[in-house]
Amino acid sequence: MKTYFRVLKYIKPYKAHLIASMIFTIFYSLLNGLSVYLTIPLLETLFNQHGVNAKTVITKKLNTGATNWLNGLEEKISTTFNSFVFEGDINQILLRICFLVLFAFLAKNIFGYLQSYFLAFVEQGMIKDLRNEAYFHLHKLPMSFFKNEKTGNLISRITNDVQVVQNSISAIFLNLIREPLSILVFLFIAVSISWQLTLFSLLVLPVSIGIISWIGLLLRKQSAILQEKLSEITTILHETITGVKIVKAFGMESYENKKFSEQTKKFFKLVLKITRIRNSSPHITEVLSVFVGVILIYYGGQLVLVEKSLKASEFLGFLFSIFQMMPPIKELSSVNNRIQESSAAADRVFEILDTEPKIKNSKDSISKKSFDDKIIFDNVSFHYDDSEELILDSINIEVKKGSIIAIVGSSGSGKTTLVDLIPRFYDPTSGKILVDGIDLKNITIEDLRAMMGIVTQETILFNDTVKNNISYGIQNCTDDDIINASIAANAHNFILELPNGYNTVVGEKGTKLSGGQRQRIAIARALLKNPPIMIFDEATSALDNESEALVQEAIERLMNERTTFVIAHRLSTIRNADRIIVLDKGKIVQDGKHDELLSDENGIYKKLYELQFREL
Ligand SMILES: Nc1ncnc2c1ncn2[C@@H]1O[C@H](COP(=O)(O)OP(=O)(O)OP(=O)(O)O)[C@@H](O)[C@H]1O
Hints:
There is one protein chain. The protein has 616 residues and is α/β, with parallel strands linked by helices. It folds into two domains: 2-232 and 272-353, ABC transporter type 1, transmembrane domain (ABC transporter transmembrane region fold, Up-down Bundle), CATH 1.20.1560.10; 402-424 and 444-613, Rossmann fold (3-Layer(aba) Sandwich), CATH 3.40.50.300. Helix content is 64%, strand content 9%. The protein contains 23 helices and ten strands. The two termini are 63 Å apart. Bound molecules: adenosine-5'-triphosphate (ATP). Adenosine-5'-triphosphate binds at residues 147, 384, 386, 391, 409, 411-417.
């Protein structure tokens, strides 16, 4: 319930639309009642075609048990109504009634349309805001969050779950406003025709409504499970589509197909179960309704034919009213289930919103636009949240502006983790990192990251044009700037050869380009940003000689006159480095220039050199 109130807070910007929708709902319900009520004089006129004065028939009223004010009100309405309708000859009366019926239905449908339009505006607006907020919040969350959450699951929450919340919002608004109102209107009509019959119906109706609601409850439970299954399917889909190359390379198609079909089979079974319940529901409802109807017809028939205390037209009008009451009562009985269902979905969305962004600007963060002197790692240690094991252990480094620091070490030694601390993708567990003497945590994240360019091993390009990929995140750059950066990155020539040059769309993650081309686009992007600090994770994959040389040249331009941290895999890079840091199990075990490090026969560097670098 708490969750639901939280969802309702999103109504605020749409209050005016909601009020409009409520007003139209009131008109809709009243006209709905009127259109049923009008059947009585219509039938009366038709039944009394042989000259009986219809006016006298419908004014015969009502009854003993209803409260006085109700009697009075009803009396007043019917007198006004009758004096308007039953004037003139039978032809005029018929024409007037037909006109009234037409007007009532026309107006009812116009109000019905307006009511649903405004309600859709409210619910779609709320959902848009909720979806945006969840998405915006995702960008504030730390890298660790994304490592722990499955991508498909996150996507499913922001798409499917938000949808479920939306479906229920409208249902609940209708249930809380339209349905009670409809029930009241029809109840008023029914009581005004015959309170005994109404009382009798109210005894029989709840039984059938109870059964129908129970079916609804079953349905809700199942659909919550369905939502989870859907999220699992999305997860598998996302994983295999993004990892399609690996699936193919390892010949895992049939394994993945089996995994997927197991999920779709579970989904299929569940949907069938739901469909079984759902499809049986209208039939059961119909049989129950007819059952109730037959009992009512028998009892009402007695009143009409035997006791003659009720007109046939009134009885039919009564039956219409009672049957019009059934769907709203049925809907109302499912409000609670709907709230439960949407709350479960909303909870999954709010879980994202409630995840605290651990890495954020502190109250006294300062703006810093330039890098002037040095970066210091002061006794930095780090472990990931899910384990106490130190991935970086007492790291002390001082990096002067303009120098190139190569980081080497065996796989898993902590190289990526070390460079991830510089743009604050993670914060050190202990110790601190200082830029020009200021702790990173005290510099606004926006300024800190603006000072850095990052080229990762796996080049991330967006499904957009080459031009937009190069200028990603850079405002106010001209086409010439983009071309110059591409020339410096040795990318210009191949870009010109693409089907639409700089306007060629590169495909999702840049799949339409080769590995070397993607890297050069990423380098052009970094060159265009022109940051004073570069973090660079060299690709391990071997490129052919020509592209290797082109990429290497581009990298050298990128490092030129910048402070560069490079996770090095190429001999030329370590030779160029001012300093090489050798990591082993999170500790710096050697530190110096290439030749110095190589001269230590027992050092890890020599072994690494022989294994990794020599033949490259
Ligand atoms: N998000 C994470 N959560 C938990 N442990 C992690 C996470 N990322 C990395 N690790 C662990 O931290 C250690 C260091 O990883 P890191 O990626 O920094 O090594 P690396 O030297 O860059 O390796 P490689 O050269 O293979 O990329 C590894 O043991 C790894 O299992």
